[in-house]
Amino acid sequence: NDTTINKTISLAAKYIDMKGIPYSGTITLAPFTSAILIKNDTINIPPIAEAGANQEIISPLSYVELQGNGIDHDGIISTYQWSKISGPAVGSLSNTTSANITATGLISGVYEFELKVTDNRGAIGKDTTTINYQAYVVPVTLLDFSAVARSGIVLLQWSTENENNSSHFEVERSNDGRNFD
Fold first, then answer.
1. Regarding beta strands 100-104 and 92-94, do their DSSP bridges make them parallel or antiparallel, or are they unpaired?
2. Cβ neighbours of residue 38 under 8 Å, at least 6 residues apart?
3. What was the pLDDT predicted at 42?
4. Whole-angstrom Cα distance, residue 168 to residue 141?
5. Strands 48-50 and 69-71
6. Which residues pair with 158 in a beta bridge?
7. pLDDT digit of tens for each residue in the chain (181 aa)?
8. Four-residue CA torsion sign, 174, 111, 78, 97
9. What's residue 7's pLDDT?
10. Residue 143: CA count within 13 A, CB half-sphere
């Protein structure tokens, strides 16, 4: 209050001051004084869960990492809980009570995972992410691969083991891991 008279200020919510005194409706400030008030509403805004963007994954590996997050505008996130909602029966989730987890033992298929976050006052937020996972099996195990440029050409050399059901090699290149020439 930067005036020489008492000033009454309307409050749109319930507040508490630094000494723990509650205020509701109005507060009256003496001349040339101020007060620091902390909002103390009983309404709890639910947290927001973010399970991450939907993904399409093509991989020889049988796992995927999920990175989640929780946002609480009027408190803090106290728990995270991941679960698989749909997809092939195989696969498991590690450390389901963390924001970031790994789904392992996956086979080709579409999986839907849910992240549930709970705030410090018990409100819940949920979000899902869909993973279209396509596993591929390479019929050989690559031990070494090298490329050397010589006189305008590139010499490729490689060695393998465990060549199962393979008759020859076709060397292709790709800029995006999907389209090959």
1. antiparallel
2. 15, 16, 17, 18
3. 67
4. 14
5. antiparallel
6. 145
7. 999 999 999 988 888 888 878 888 899 999 999 999 988 876 778 899 999 999 988 877 788 999 999 999 888 999 999 999 999 999 899 999 999 999 999 989 999 999 999 999 899 999 999 999 988 767 787 889 898 999 989 899 988 887 777 788 888 888 877 788 8
8. negative
9. 95
10. 6
Q: Is 169 exposed, middle or buried (0-12, 13-18, 19+ CB in 10 A)?
A: exposed
> Read out DSSP for the chain?
--SSS-EEEEEEEEEEETTS-EEEEEEEE-TT----EEE--S--PPPEEE----EEEEESSSEEEEE-EEE-TTS-EEEEEEEEEES-S--EEESTTSSEEEEES--SEEEEEEEEEEETTS-EEEEEEEEEEEE---SSEEEEEEEEEETTEEEEEEEEE---S---------SSSS---
Tokens representing 130 are 């869909």
The set of residues, in sequence order, having a beta carbon less than 8 Å from that of 84 and lying 6+ positions away, is 91, 93, 103, 111, 112, 113, 114
Let me know how long the chain is: 181
CB-based contacts of 34, cutoff 8 Å, min separation 6:
1
Tokens of 47: 């947290």
Report the candidate in 50, 51, 69 with the shortest Cα–Cα distance to residue 131. 51
